[in-house]
Design brief:
By secondary structure, this protein is of the alpha+beta class. 37% of the residues lie in helices and 7% in strands. The relative contact order is 0.17.
């Protein structure tokens, strides 16, 4: 899907959100960093109100095709992301990885707390809830070939954008950043302006944290490179219009 085709799927409010840089309200640093409690759409749909409404519409459309879209992970707070980061760091450390190797291993898929798109409340990891769950459900092979979620992936490839949802981490070999995540989708009308505001935050704000494993190895140079390769290493459709 081209950028023009994507824009053509929206009207009114959506275009204002995407293009109205000077008319919309700016997002707070606390919201962007996952430090502000999100008013979720519902317990089972842990997304913002607007993203949740769009998800329900997409969920109903998918159900007509026998696909039961289920959110495995939606909104994630800064504290929750730090717990995930610290757990992985400690496990990798016990396995003998150096601090730098440890950090590089974690950021193949996981983000530094304060940098996760899940902080924003408009991104979600999805599976087909009608299929049996065995072990880790968020594995690429489960979305391809004979995998249980292949049918869902194919449906999402064709229809998700019509509801405003775009996959950030595609399998494009020219894309930098986090590895391919066929399960991860972002509600573009919110995430695009949120990314714009996020990029205006000072880099050193990500170093002002307590209790983060490996913090002493995180420098401003690292954060700057991380932003270029990881935060901006996304599907072009999710970058500023």
């Amino acid at each position: 899907m081209t950028r023009q085709q994507f824009l053509a799927t929206f009207s009114g409010l959506y275009l204002t959100q995407l293009l109205g840089k000077n008319t919309r309200e700016k997002y707070s640093a606390a919201r962007l960093l996952g430090q502000e409690k999100l008013l979720q759409y519902s317990i089972s749909i842990p997304l913002s109100k607007n993203a949740g409404k769009a998800f329900v519409k997409m969920q109903k459309a998918a159900l007509k095709e026998g696909i039961s879209l289920e959110i495995v992970s939606g909104y994630r707070s800064y504290d929750r992301q730090q717990q995930i980061w610290n757990r992985k760091f400690i496990i990798n450390q016990a396995a003998g990885l150096s601090p730098i190797e440890n950090i590089q291993k974690i950021i193949e898929y996981s983000t530094l707390p304060g940098t996760s798109r899940h902080h924003w409340g408009c991104d979600a990891d999805l599976i087909d809830g009608s299929k049996s769950k065995n072990g880790d459900v968020l594995l690429s092979e489960k979305f391809h070939g004979e995998g249980p979620y292949t049918e869902m992936r194919i449906w999402m490839d064709e229809y998700a954008a019509k509801f405003g949802f775009i996959r950030p981490y595609t399998n494009d070999p020219n894309r930098t950043g986090f590895l391919y995540e066929p399960w991860h989708f972002s509600y573009a009308p919110e995430s695009i302006p949120m990314l714009e505001d996020y990029l205006q935050l000072p880099l050193d704000i990500l170093l002002k944290t307590d209790g983060l494993e490996g913090k002493s190895n995180l420098t401003l140079d690292f954060i700057n490179q991380y932003r270029l390769e990881r935060i901006l290493g996304i599907n072009p459709l999710l970058k500023s219009f």
